[in-house]
Amino acid sequence: MTKLTEFTTDGLVRRMMAGDEEAFTRLYRRLNPPIYRFALHMSGNTAIAEDVTQEVFMTLIRDARRFDPARGSLAAFLFGIARNHLRKRWEQERRILPLAQGQDGNGNETCALEAKRTLGRPYETSSGDSHDLFASLETIGRVRQAIATLPQNYREVVVLCELEEMNYEDAAAALDCPIGTVRSRLHRARALLLEKLREPEVRARVANE
User: How many domains are contained in the chain?
Assistant: First the structure.
């Protein structure tokens, strides 16, 4: 096995299963951030997101042999575990508050990342672009608030496919549903988001008439 192969995700999984602790550490550093972001977007609670992320990687240590590359990527496998843990938490606690406006749990870096992924353009911070910066932050806040109010099944596909840029095949594996279901949910979720983002503009127009 070449060095390059050893450091692919599949190569690291094989090394981890053989007892290589460094391989697990590399996988953790590579996949911890997206798993945490998913749990945070779905729960709206940093403590729950941290607990779920920890549980995901503890499950990976205990049950790595459950991972089947033929069914999807390791990321899809771990997102699926995170989803199951979140559902258990929801059943236990019955109610989780939506993510508060302005709360990111990861500081400015998360805002920058979401600006790139959600808005689809570079995130500029130079002094000459201060107006664009604050306009972007306001838009990011509105988008995140809108995502937080989506029904769970729509929120899942938006976070995975739009924010984490996961392909439909892996998203389907993570959500344990057909690819066609991912496509239809994402289509509906986008429509709902557009409606929610237009609501303030519609209210403003009505108020000025």
Answer: 1
Residue 142 CA to its chain's centroid (Å): 17
Q: Which helix (H) or strand (E) holds 202?
A: helix 179-208
Residue type, 28: Y
Distance CA 175, CA 160 (A): 10
Name 66's Cβ contacts closer than 8 Å, sequence gap at least 6: 77
Question: Tens digit of pLDDT for each residue in 158-175?
Answer: 999 988 999 999 999 999
Tell me if 79 sits within 8 A of 174, measured CB to CB.
yes
Residue 74, in any domain of the structure: yes
Total H helices, total E strands in the chain: 10, 0
Token readout for 158 is 């938006």
What does the pLDDT look like over 21-80, one tens digit per residue?
899 999 999 999 999 999 999 988 899 999 999 999 999 988 888 888 888 889 999 999
In a domain, 189, yes or no: no
Cα–Cα distances (Å) from 193 to 58, 104, 150, in that order, read: 34, 19, 8
DSSP 99: P
Residue at 105 is within a domain: no
- Structure-model confidence comparison of residues 31 and 201, the more confident one: 31
CATH of the domain at 68: 1.10.1740.10
